[in-house]
Design a protein that fits this description.
CATH topology of the largest domain: Arc Repressor Mutant, subunit A
Helix content: over 70%
Number of strands: 0
CATH superfamily of the largest domain: Homeodomain-like
CATH architecture of the largest domain: Orthogonal Bundle
Strand content: under 5%
Shape: elongated
Number of helices: 7
Order of helices and strands: HHHHHHH
Radius of gyration: 16 Å
Largest sheet: none
CATH class of the largest domain: Mainly Alpha
Length: 118
């Protein structure tokens, strides 16, 4: 199986399980390859490890949810927990390094962007 095919299988599974902790053995079962093949495919296609790939997919899901949410109706804590992030300090640091803003800024900006679009 070619690396892009492996990543397509991985991505399809991950999208359905963004809120779960996914062990490497389960990812190997789902993609039908060994751990080494999965690691090699992730590095070849995504330029990163499977663990980092999963974290980035989950962070992107949190980012979308925060952009679409309205302050007062949800919190950063609730959205982060919905996607399996429970160490909030670490989550906020990684989120900021990936998106260049704090999660709370995204939440506030998502509401003002939605209000101006209406």
């Amino acid at each position: 199986m070619l690396p892009p095919q492996i990543i397509n299988r991985l991505d399809a599974f991950v999208r359905e399980h963004l809120d779960e902790s996914l062990p490497m053995a389960q990812l190997c079962d789902v993609t039908g390859v060994s751990e080494r093949s999965l690691r090699n495919a992730c590095h070849a296609v995504c330029g990163t490890s499977p663990k980092r790939y999963l974290t980035l997919r989950r962070l992107e899901a949190v980012h979308r949810a925060l952009e679409e949410a309205r302050p007062g109706q949800t919190t950063v804590t609730r959205v982060a927990a919905d996607f399996g992030f429970f160490e909030l300090g670490r989550f906020a640091g990684v989120y900021s390094s990936v998106f260049g803003e704090r999660p709370s800024d995204t939440l506030r900006g998502g509401a003002s962007g939605a209000a101006s679009a209406a």
